[in-house]
Amino acid sequence: MNGKLLKQLTQRRLVLFYEIFVIFLVLSYSILLIQNSSGAIPDILTPQEMLWLDWGLIFLFGLEYLVRYIYAAEKRKFVMKNWFELIAMLPLDSHFRFFRILRFIQLVRMSKILSAFFRRKELRYSFVIVSLVVLWGATGVYLIEAPMSKNIHSFLDAIWWAIVTTTTVGYGDISPVTLGGRMIAVVLMFTGIGLIGSVTASIATHFMEYLKIPQEITGEDRVRRDLIELIEKKLEEIEELSDEEYKTLLAMIETMRHQKVD
């Protein structure tokens, strides 16, 4: 293994640790937001503790923003492009809880895995369909079963039942007792088998593509690969490129095009 490949693997591991940290932070913050926003269940953190957490996230966002701003080629374009991050850092949670949702969205955007995950068309369509099916099942069961069942006390209980049924887990803590509720359960079971399988397969493919380990190559293939990686990197920050950098990018793309033709 040559030094360059070893360096790439080391960088990939560091990026992977960062991605894992951000993903767990997203999951933890989403649970806290849901738990602390529902009146039916006790809060995990006190309002003061949530405020400290929000200030910690603001510090993290500010640090990440500052580092990227320092290395940005054109500062003004960078600020104009990343206006959402500045809004998410406003400490107005005590007056507007909506800012916590913005902060959650910014957390997702900080992860390349998650942001690329939500940009994939097939995954977006799959999640929309699954969400509609779960929402339909939860609404139907809540309207039909709530007056008859002792286990469904709120719409959140119905959502929980619909998710458990769609994923075919079936904990058994909530079960329909009416004919209409059982018919809805049958529909969720059959649709869940195909839909959840499709979603999990897409998620697995996405993560495998991201975590793919680079292989050692030589000669023209290495040059071509490095050029492709450089072009992809420049395309990600195309709005921040100067005129000279943009011309260089076009020249690289033209070089790749001629190589393919030859």
UniProtKB/TrEMBL annotation:
**Name of the molecule in the record:** Voltage-gated potassium channel
Domain called Potassium channel: residue spans? 130-207
**Organism superkingdom:** Bacteria
| Primary localization class, coarse | membrane
Keyword Transmembrane present in the record's keywords: the answer is yes
Pfam families with a match to the protein in the record: Ion_trans_2
Q: Which residues cross the membrane?
A: 14-32, 52-71, 125-143, 155-172, 184-204
Query: In the record, what terms sit under GO molecular function?
Result: voltage-gated potassium channel activity
User: Per the record's keyword annotation, is Nucleus included, yes or no?
Assistant: no
Return the PANTHER family for the record: POTASSIUM VOLTAGE-GATED CHANNEL PROTEIN SHAB (PTHR11537:SF254), VOLTAGE-GATED POTASSIUM CHANNEL (PTHR11537)
Q: Show the GO cellular component annotation of the record.
A: voltage-gated potassium channel complex
InterPro entries tied to this protein: K_chnl_dom, VG_K_chnl, Volt_channel_dom_sf
Q: How does it sit in the membrane?
A: Multi-pass membrane protein
Keywords for the protein's UniProt record, in alphabetical order: Ion channel, Ion transport, Membrane, Transmembrane, Transmembrane helix, Transport
Gene3D superfamilies reported in the protein's UniProt record: 1.10.287.70, Voltage-gated potassium channels. Chain C
Which organism does this sequence originate in? Seinonella peptonophila
Question: Where, per UniProt, does this protein localize?
Answer: Membrane
Q: For this UniProt entry, which residues form the secretion signal?
A: none
Its GO biological process terms?
action potential
